[in-house]
Structures are given as C-alpha cells and as structure tokens.
Amino acid sequence: MQPITPEDIQIRIDQLAGQNLYVHLELTTGAYASHLDSTRHPASAFISNAAVRYTQGSISGTGPYRVGLKTTQGWVYAEGLTHVDETEKERLILAGHDSQGKLIVALQLSRETF
Amino acid sequence: MKAEDYTAMKNQQTEHQRILVVFPHPDDEAFAASGTLAKYIDSGAQVTYACLTLGEMGRNMGIPPFASRVTLPAIRKEELAASCLAIGIQDLRMLGFHDKMIEFEDQQRLDNEIMALLQELSPSLVITFYPGYSVHPDHDATGAAVIRTIGRLPAAERPLVHCVAFASNHERAIGKADMIVDVTAFLEEKMASIRAHRTQFQAAELVGNQELTDEEIRTRFGTEPFWTYRFD
Ligand SMILES: [Zn+2]
C-alpha cells in the first residue's frame, strides 16, 4: 500500500466511470474496540460485491481523503481514505488506516467480483 | 473408574495422542495455545488445526501497511502455514468460512464440518474458544458450534474440551482457569508462531513495535490458561 496521491486516484476514478462494477465498501472500529476501551462503541458495516455504476466520481480533501461516486440511483461515499494498493492496475483498492496502522475504512471498485 | 478419575486421567497432558484445535482466525492459535500445542507435540501428540477463516476482514495490515483487503487472505494463509510449522502442527485444515460471518453462517453446515473432523480423527482433546467469553463474535460462535456438536455425541464418546476465554468478565462467570499450562520451555516456538503472523503481531495491543526482553516475554507469554468445558 502507498499513501494516496489524489491526482492519480482521480484518473483511476474517471477510467472506471460509466461501467458495471462491483463495490466493496467497509467501515470498522474492529470487534475489539470496546474490549480494549469500554468507552468506545464498536461499530462496523460492510457490503461486498454490490453491483454499482457511477456517472461521475471524485476524490477530495487534503488527506485523509473523501471519495464520492454519483451512481445512477444514488451515491457511494467514503471518508478517511489514506492508502491505495499501487500494484492493482485494473481494480481500485483504497483504504484508510488509523494512527495505529489499522484499517478503518475501505472502498474498492472492480469490473470482476472480489 | 469413577467419572472424576476418568477426567483426571484424560487431563494428563501426556495422555493426548490426537488433538483437534478449532479456532476461527489465523493467529488465534499463536496467542492462545501455541506453547501448549508445542508442548503436546513434543510429547508425541498429533495435532490437527481446523482454522475456519483466513481472517480476511482483519484490520491489521502490517506496520506500515503492506497488505490490503484484497491481498490479506493470501498473505494470512502463508502466515498461518508458517505459524503451524513453527509450532510443529502436523495437519492444518483451512475450512474456508468467511471472516466475521461465523455467527451468521448456516449452523448445520458448520456443525457438519466439525462433526466430520471429530469422526475422522477421534481426538482425545479438543481446544476451542469458550462460547460467550471470548470477545470476538467469531470466537464465541466457533466455540458454540464445537460445544453444540460434541454435546450431540454420547457422553462416553465425548473428547475432553479445553476452552480459551478472555472476556473482561469471564472469571466472574466461569471461575478461574482449571488448567494453566507452563509454556516457558516452549517460548521459542510460541514467539516464532506469533511473529509468523507478520501483518498482525506489531499491533500495539498484541506485541507492539518494541523488542521485548526475555523477562517480558516470560511474564506475558509464559503461561496459557484453559477452562475444561463441563457438559452437564
Ligand atoms: Zn481471533
């Protein structure tokens, strides 16, 4: 994983627009959040391989970054993105890592299922 | 033989020739039981480790992150194999369930897989998580499936079950561990097993980034507690 360069991500987002894609979207504090600190409220959600098609999308912010994708019927949104898997050429694999290095958010787009 | 004598006999560490370990995540074995398993293996036991998932939804990706959601399962598969090698586990089964989803899985399918392993291996000891006292929903659901399945066997055919528990309230509910294994002689295997999980062990709440002294390793990792599950 490499820190995000927003200009590169914008190019990738544009390349994937207007196509039938699969999205993996995830936000998580982890199952151990309240075990380690009882004041923390554990919360997670993920959806994997949901079919999605967006007409326009962009990355914004100064880091951590936000991504919003305008789909045919609604929106896909993720905040807190910091890293990209630079080895992936076809798929867009974005993640946000917290100060301890743990994954806290993920947004992934692919023409094939994950 | 009286029931309690039989249990005492089965509890003897050296008695176990065949052991089945059932945990949901690669690295559960490392932190909870690697020293104990290395010890049993050293005295001749054959160990089968059924690992239900690849931990593909884990949050630790290495420090700095070198794994992603997409690459994590393949990386953790290799880490798991390396950990088993470090412990000496002879038989690793990856059952292919989805991480985080054990509690939502088809129970029949889960129980059938565990029953098939019990019938194939006839273990004298099974090691798993204590249902309800193991923090992660996958841990609790795995322990529950193992207990449910073994509970279906006639009492005389049930293997001994040693559970791992670490919820913050667990001692109030299930008392103190009745089996505390001294693994100080197997810390080399245990630390090698933990460090095999390269994406995981540097997390602050696990081992952290600092090199631990031998003293710290002995205090933190020198014993492994287990609770014998009582079916009645
Ligand atoms: Zn676990």
Automatic annotation (TrEMBL), chain A:
Official protein name in the record: DUF1806 family protein
Pfam families membership: DUF1806
InterPro entries named in the record: DUF1806, YojF_sf
Organism domain of life: Bacteria
TrEMBL record, chain B:
InterPro entries per the UniProt record, alphabetical: BshB2 (IPR023841), GlcNAc_PI_deacetylase-related (IPR003737), LmbE-like_dom_sf (IPR024078)
One MF term in the entry's GO annotations: hydrolase activity, acting on carbon-nitrogen (but not peptide) bonds, in linear amides
Pfam families, per the entry: PIG-L
Protein name: Bacillithiol biosynthesis deacetylase BshB2
